[in-house]
Automatic annotation (TrEMBL):
PANTHER family: CYCLIC DI-GMP PHOSPHODIESTERASE PDEF, SIGNALING PROTEIN
Lineage: Bacteria, Pseudomonadati, Pseudomonadota, Gammaproteobacteria, Vibrionales
Keyword Hydrolase appears in the UniProt entry: yes
Domain of life, source organism: Bacteria
UniProt gene name: dosP_5
Residues covered by the EAL domain: 16-270
Organism the protein comes from: Grimontia marina
Signal peptide interval: none
Name of the featured protein: Oxygen sensor protein DosP
PROSITE patterns: EAL (PS50883)
Amino acid sequence: MVKHLRTQSEFEEYLRDDNNGDVMAVFNGLELRSAFQPIFRANGTVLGFEALVRARKIDGEPACPSHLFRKLDHDHPDFVNQISIDKLARVIHLRNFSSFAGNHSIFLNMLPSSAVASIETFSNQNLMVKRLAELGIPRHHVVLEVVEHLHADTLSLSVATTQSINNGFQIAVDDYGVEGSEEMRVRMIRPSLIKIDRSLVQRYVEGEVEAMLRAIALSKEVNAELLVEGIENQEEYEAMRALHINYFQGFHLGMPQRLEDFFAANPGKRGPTQKVE
């Protein structure tokens, strides 16, 4: 078992430059790379990008991110490695994002267990604060996405997210609407943004509107903005726009890719003005 990564020198040990000049990580038999999916405002301009990890084994076989970041108990033999992979992914994402940051935000996935572990020791989040300053990324442009229903200890998660907010980060509840999501936990976490799971979008366009309307009401109650993810066709996009949702994300609007490839396809659009039609 590889020990829990904590210091900058320990992270640096696993970083490499790939053939495209991007930063990648090689850790525990895995290669980790970044992909970025655009997130659009209601007016069609780019708010920012969700950083997604692309993993494969050293022999080239793909590794499924949903398996790498599945819910594990603290005594599971893969738990420590999972936390380190979670942190390494954010390290490479921030480095690859820094050259293109501009006025955009970056959305970083964070396992609830990793969020709690970071706050309990303070070391990792303090390291992130330092690295963001060195990379020139404003803290208020960093949105930490947590999946509230994957953590049983709501109080510890609430303390962790509150500390993150106090450190200048934004908090988003990810995948809201899947089995296990609870309104009470959202109220305790105090997110600035709620990401609505695609399942609620599908149910809404099929005529089951109650769950989506409850999510909208919850967002107003906790003073959070709404982001609908998983938009895969024009019908879904138009239906969500009619609800006056704040932000949109999905394959219909933009595929995950390298940031350099995104901006190469949209030259001169590194500011906040790139629009989706």
